[in-house]
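cron nightly-structures :: item 1 of 1
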Amino acid sequence: MKLGELKTAGHLPTLLAAFLYFDFSFMVWTMLGPLATEISQSLAANGFHLDPNQKATLLALPILSGAILRILLGFLVDQIGPKKTALIAQGIVIASLFYGYMRGEHITYNELLLVAFGLGFAGASFAVALPQAGQWYPPRLQGLVLGLAGAGNIGVVLDFLFAPKIAEYWGWQAVFLVGGVLSTFIFIMYALMAKDAPADVYKPRPKKVSDYLKLLRDKDTWWFSLFYAVSFGGFVGFANYMKVYLMNTYQVDMSHFGLEYLNEPNVKVVAGYFGALCIFAGAVLRPVGGGIADKLGGVKSLYIFFGAIVVLAVINATLVHNFYLAILVLFLIMANLGMANGAVFQLVPQRFGKDMGIMTGIVGCAGGLGGTALIKTLGWSKSAFGSYAAGFFLFAAVVAVAIVGISLVKTRWRTTWGMSAGGRI
């Protein structure tokens, strides 16, 4: 059984530490999403009213900075090792959180943008946690291992479950305090548990800028970047924008549901609960997607997951008017995006096993850029047309392009590097 092999084939404490580090980092990275309404109201009380563009920029900036910083941290992983890289990045995140807390309701919009940029270091943790876990394990376990480490994105579910309620009782800045304290605790746990893989298991090869350029000249780098821009970009984009989307589209329905079934009069809290439900599907099913890819092959798995996403996105844009049906469709979209994340990273280490530090950074960057583009697209759709239908149509079209891409590369992959990769593609 593969789960049993994890105890003997690698280093379980490091796998657990990578999961915890990524879990809480992802929680911090997406913190502004479930607090968007509360922060907007706080700024408005001080005379600064956010327009839709400014709100979208605030939500997109941690995703954008996280995407770019993944390249930097991916480079540092190969230069100084995953553990030192993680501790440096986590220190910056902790400082950003406590700064946001101390400034509190007096914080300006420009200061919030600075904090949002600092939170990007939490998003860049992806480029550290996944290669650190993957370096310990053989190719046949990569889908499961990287799926488990990457399942840390369940941290965003915690945001949506608890952040709005904490903000209701003690103010949105209290969420930053909680995040800072938890991040400090994880910093200590990670420092004690995590180990870089020894030379007899994984021999690091420090890279130069020219090595990045060499990988960027490889067309497979761009294909993987596209696939991850769709899967992870879709997941993090919808996750970060979920509360804004639900509040703008189904506020009356959520308010009624909260009063009728939850005895919860705060619709922002109810929106957090429904957002958490949908996001949970994508977060918890990432390792399932990796496991399915190990069994069926990453290519076939991506056909299934991406195909389902296209159909569901079009359904949401055209046929869905009932709130409960909309939640079901969003739940299924997020589930398939999460499983697609696991499938992509079942393939990446088989193709670029010797360059995982850099490749995780490059592909992770593409995922963050995809998420940024999705947030801005949804905001544009609402502003231009008064609905999100156009945004969902555009997203479905991009996923369809990715499916075409899979068809173009699958034969070449299977007859070249796939023949000696060590796992099913």
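cron nightly-structures :: done
The mean pLDDT is 88.
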